[in-house]
Amino acid sequence: MFIGIDGGGTSCKAILQNENGHTISQGIGGPANPVNGVSQSQNSILEACFQALDNAGLSRECVGEITVGAGLAGLHLGAMQQVMMNWAHPFKSLALTTDLHAAVLGAHLGHDGGVLILGTGFSALAVCGQQRLAIGGMGFPINANGSGSWLGLEAVKAVLLAEDQLAPQTILQYLLLAGENKTVLAQHTVNANATTFGQYAPAVFEAASQNDEVAQNLLRQATQFAESVIEKLTDFGAPRVTLIGSVANALLPLMSAETQSTIHAAKASPQEGAIMFARQAAQQ
After folding, report:
1. What is the mean pLDDT of residues 25-29?
2. Which end of the chain has fewer CB within 10 Å, C or N?
3. CATH classification number, 112-265, choose in 3.90.420.10, 3.90.230.10, 3.40.50.1100, 3.30.420.40
């Protein structure tokens, strides 16, 4: 049997498949980007796998018979790849790749195409024949434009400035402060990671739906950035582009008709792409 893992900055999703590619069950764990904590990433992978086995009515001892393919955010960084490859995992085998690669494999079933991931973080990849174009993925806060963590960070900054009357008042003050003062918000976020800031992203969409100008401006910036990345993927030669992540899909209605015409639904999930990768690795 196979388990496919899609591990990001907020959650780790798993599917369990039999030899014939039939999905038996699913599982979910916590944040799985090793950049934000290697032990946390490994524990989240185990959590998702065990939950998938539980949901299938199988003993957790079966984990030693499972071939696992895992597409993880942050794995494009050599140090992260090495430390995860050295993991003394309990699986029959573990094939590791990036979340981007797994997403492309699943979205286009191994054919040419591109993906833009905007979830907690940001990254993109186009595959055309033997050529690849990788964009972003260097992590929060330096390279997370348009993502949930970026929206959350910008929202916090806007709230703190508004509280000091140095920027326009915004509904985000009510949503983020939640009855507390600005000092409490600052203390909670001053050294926070991408996952923490990503939790504020839904507030930006909520405020924008109430015609809040500050929030709408943030979404405009995120949308413009996403469209510029999609343009680079198509210019590279990607015949299809798929959006992955809650933020990317929430921004889609805000994109131009021209951009929307280049977007295609994924043919399979990143988890299924990870299993495809594991099957390929097992045959080598």
Report:
1. 98
2. C
3. 3.30.420.40
